[in-house]
Amino acid sequence: MSEVRPTYDDELDLFEFFETLWDGKWKIVGVVIFSVLSVFGYQTIQPQPNFEASTEIKPISSVEAGRYSQSNALGFFEVSPNTLLNLYIDQLDDRTLFEEAIRKYQLLDVEKFEDKQAYEEAVIELASSIDISPPININGTEKGDLRSFWTIGFEYNDDAKWKSVLSFVDSKANQSVQRILQQLFQNSLSVAKQKQMFELEDLEFLIANALEAYDRNTSNRLAYLIEQASIARKLGVAKNTIEAQTFSAQNGMVVITDTLFYLRGYEAIEKEIELIKSRTNKEAFVKGLVELEQKQRTIKQDKTLERAESLFASSPILNTNDFSAVSVKVDATEFETKAKKMPMLALAVVIGGVIGVIYVLISSAVRNRKQQAA
User: Fold this and answer.
1) What is the reported pTM?
2) Phi, psi of 47 (to 5 degrees)
């Protein structure tokens, strides 16, 4: 009896191939579903993935800036949106506020560190990693590289905590800027008042010196007049004879000078002495005194500093609940997840599909061989 051996056709039959896949479609779908559910479950139990957060820092609006227009118009202490923005950025660059917020909202678990020093070093390092970037407006750069405003960038895994940190830092930075502006104004005011005081002191010295000079000059003048009057009496010169007196000289005519003042006559000289001694308002005869007193009055009557204080008091800087150096919308923070969930799920579908197809084909091949061998 001859043994009949089964024959195997190893040639690929596409119709049979796709028919096999169609018959095992639910197995393939099941494998895909199992693969997707496995990946999804893995993602669910894993810690929250990291994200990159970006928050814009914008200058105050024109409406907000207009609230400083009155005090700025005086020209004593001007506050511009750019001034406020620069002071705000200075507070962020210091990183102290971020360090305080990291501790307050426990962005780092202190229990995971060996000691307090290690924890503090980690806090400082994390605060330093926060990116505070200026605007970028360079022609020709890609759209993604353009930034119209300052931005705060950070990588973390809890958006709620990060928003709390941003709100805390923004509030504290505004308070710091407010205190700095108040101190700067008081310093400017103090310097201006001191300058006024020095100017008044200088004018008082100049006025006192002018009066003293008058007294000294008047005393010298009286001594000179008394001497000249005595000479005139001695010579019997009662009337002014200067106009008629000339002396010959080798080179022509010489006119009488103050050295021969007695020639004016003792009557005129003694009258001048009498008038000088009878003056009751010597200030009227002090040279330059009017100009000095006018400068003094101008400084004393200057209301610039008083008005500056009044206008500054009405500005937002002195209103604790109504001050904002910049515009930071914490809720508008953009979060970009670094761990891509959807690509992983898509990959799970592909891998699950491939595994399902291989399983169906192998199962079908095994089944066919068994049937042929039977």
Assistant:
1) 0.68
2) -60, 155
